[in-house]
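Submission sheet (multi-component)
Chains listed below:
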Amino acid sequence: MMPFLCIPPIMREEILAGISSLNGVKCAVIIGPDALSIEYSPTDIDAEKFVANWHALESIAPENATKIFIRTSDSFLFSQRIDEGHTLLIQTDIECNVGSMRSIIAKEIPKLVPFL
Amino acid sequence: MVSGELWALVREIHARGDSIQLYWSISPEIRQWEESRVEKVRKLIQSTTGESYDIERLKMLPLDPKFGRFILTDGEIDYGILWAMKMSGECARVLAFSIHTNLQGKGLGHTGWKKFADEAIRMGIKEVQLEVRQDNDSAIRLYKRRGLKIRGQIIGFYRGKKGWLMFGPLNSEPSPQ
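Outcome: structure written.
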């Protein structure tokens, strides 16, 4: 049974690595139901910092808020819902078109669902 | 649209005039509040920011018990709030900072910020981050005078407006002009 149990995290890691290697993507983080990161790519980022930042923003988002994203001097930060309890947080470089990237990420998200 | 209930509060403030003694105090956990009190604060936030919040979401905010649940009160009514959470060991996030519109410009924002900052600093917090609407000049001025700088722009958060993401050292007093 052990090898089977190990497969989902490995697959998830590979799918996330694929997302983070998309042109313009700096990093990708899966946030779990408890608002903590459960997987991130690349692995040398301060994922908790990203997640804490985003969670704080979402927790106080007004009712009418839609498709929130943050633009800094060198990056965009936005999220995509994976399922009821999971969110994918994406940081891209500043040249990235957020709308286009959302569409690309949306196509990748179904691949993650079986491995959460 | 301002509700009748809010107008009643406005009339009450006018009637009581300068005789009311307002002070910033730490409130109990929001989820322990009566529904009507949360609703009044929800309307306060709506009247000062134009933003509408879900009442259940307000009750679930992860506010810090030591420095994150300040209310401006006369002992009976909430006239303002400064709600904050801990983001990491040394960084706090202000989630809501609202003062009744009739009480703005009286230095109550300054005293509220000082109360929050003094307590947060005592708890080891050194940095603070917050969001503010780009057209909220007085708030932006207050934050900038305390050393916060614009770190990014928030899109899709406020109704029809963009916001600033501000970050900086946590100072209780404004820098000299």
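Remark: The longest strand of chain B covers residues 78-88.
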